[in-house]
Amino acid sequence: MEYRQLGRSGFTVPALCFGTATFGGGNDFFKAWGSTDAGAASRLVDICLDNGVAMFDSSDLYSKGLAEEVLGAAIKGKRNRVILSTKGTFRFSDEPNDVGASRYHLISAVEGSLRRLGTDHIDVFQLHGFDAFTPIEETLHTLDGLVRAGKIRYIGCSNFSGWQLMKSLAISDRDRLVRHVVHQAYYSLIGRDYESELMPLGLDQGVGLSVWSPLGWGRLTGKIRRGSALPEVSRLHKTSKEGPPVSAELVYNVVEVLERIAGETGKTVPQIALNWLLRRPTVATVIIGARNETQLTENIGALGWSISDEQTRRLDEVSAIPKAYPYWHQDVWGAVGTRRWTA
C-alpha cells in the first residue's frame, strides 16, 4: 500500500481509505447506501487490513452515530492497526445546542464519537461543514484544546469554500493553534470544481485532500450508460437529489471514454476513475465505499498500476467543463500577463 503525507504534517495515510457511510443503515437515506451490520463490517475491515487499507472514515451524521458504533465493534482488538477518521458539526439531536462548531457541541460530539468508536483518541477529526454562526476562533481554540488533551491527533474540515478554509488557517497561524491539514471534499471525473480554488489553496497552504464520492455519487460504476435505465440496485433511485449536480450528457461522455480505456488496460471502469484521481495534485487519500466484498476488492484494485499520460489526457479533455469567473479569466489572461498554477 502506498502511503502519502497528510498535508503539511508529519503523518502519513494510505492512498485508499474505507468509508463507512454504508454501515448501519439507520434511516431511509443511508439504507440506500447500505445496511452493513457489525459482522459483515468486521469482514470488510479484515479485507481492508489484509490489503493495507488501514484508514477508516466515518461521521456522527451517518445513521445518527450507528455507523460509528458498527465500525467500533468491527475494529475491536485491532485499534493499534487502524487509523480512525470521523467528522462532526451536523445536527445530532433536537437539543438546541446539539449542532454546529461551538465549544459546547464540538466537545460533546468528540466525546460521543470516542464512546461509539470504543477508543480513547481520534486520529483525524474533521468539521463536517462550516458553521457560519460560531466564531472561527471559538471553533479552533476548542479543537486545539482537544488535541492538547490527547483526544484528537490531527484536525481537518469538509465541504468548506476557499475563503472559509483560508480564514481558518490564517486564524490558526495568528493564534498559534493547530491547523487543518486535510480537507475532505468532493472530487471526481464528473465533478472537478475542486480544481478551481481549493486545489491551489491546498498546494499553497499544505492542506491535503481526502476525496469523498470519487465515483460521482455512484454514477461512475460502469453500470450507467447512454440509452439504458438505472440499474435495479442503485442509491440514485433515492438519493440523486442530495448528490452532486451533474448533466447526464457529461456522465455518458465520461463513461464512454472510461470504458474504452478499461478495454485497453484490462481494468474496470471504477478502477480507471479511481486511478485518475490518485494522480491528481494534493490528493492524500481517496475514500472508497462498498456494500460487499466484491465491490471492496474491485476498488482496492485501483492501486499498484497507473493509466498512461495519454489516457489521462483523454479523461481530462472529456471531463472538462466551463469554469466560473474569475477562473476562466485567469486561465485566458494568465498566459498574457501573469503566472498562475493550473490543474
In brief:
The chain has one domain: TIM Barrel (Alpha-Beta Barrel), CATH 3.20.20. Helices cover 40% and strands 15% of the residues. It is built from 13 helices and 10 strands.
How does this structure look, described?
The strands form 2 sheets. Strands 3-4-5-6-7-8-9-10 form an 8-stranded parallel beta barrel, surrounded by 6 helices. Strands 1-2 form a two-stranded antiparallel sheet. Strand 8, helix 7 (198-205) and strand 9 (208-212) form a beta-alpha-beta unit. Helices cover 40% and strands 15% of the residues. The protein is globular and about 50 Å long. The chain is α/β, with parallel strands linked by helices. It has a single domain (3-218, 282-306), classed as TIM Barrel (Alpha-Beta Barrel). The protein has helices at 28-31, 38-50, 66-74, 103-117, 136-148, 162-175, 198-205, 236-239, 248-265, 269-278, 293-300, 309-319, 327-337, and strands spanning 3-5, 12-14, 16-19, 55-57, 83-88, 122-127, 152-158, 180-186, 208-212, 283-288. The mean pLDDT is 92. The two termini are 26 Å apart.
